[in-house]
Amino acid sequence: MRTDKPIYLTIREKIEDQIINNQLKEGEQAPSTNQLVNFYKINHATVSKGVNQLVDEGILYKKRGIGMFVAEGAREKLIQARKESFIEDYVVMLVEEADKLGFEEDDIINFIKQVKGRDRS
């Protein structure tokens, strides 16, 4: 597993993606830290760090002796957080650069339509 970001964040994002994509539904049991340790062949503390962040944020909850489960409202909470992050990480920079280059709002909208219309296969 090679990435520029810390491994615990990659684990966390994989679980988030499973929730957003409805592979893990609210109330369903999430993979245990031991399962993740064995699957990714990484340190238990690394996995725990990512999973515990999700617990702290109310995305997962623990049932003592049973495991971790997806919390009610987790999917919507994650989608909302990702939307806010998308705006900050992409849209703000896009608009700032477009302003520097003299693009109008309609130009940006047309660029987006062109990109969405491309064959991505």
TrEMBL record:
CDD domains: WHTH_GntR. The keyword tRNA processing does not apply. It comes from the Bacteria. Keywords: DNA-binding, Transcription, Transcription regulation. InterPro entries: Tscrpt_reg_HTH_GntR (IPR000524), WH-like_DNA-bd_sf (IPR036388), WH_DNA-bd_sf (IPR036390). Pfam families: GntR (PF00392). The keyword Transcription regulation applies. Residues 5-73 form the HTH gntR-type domain. GO terms for molecular function: DNA binding; DNA-binding transcription factor activity. PANTHER family: GNTR-FAMILY TRANSCRIPTIONAL REGULATOR, HTH-TYPE TRANSCRIPTIONAL REPRESSOR YTRA. This is GntR family transcriptional regulator. It comes from Salipaludibacillus agaradhaerens.
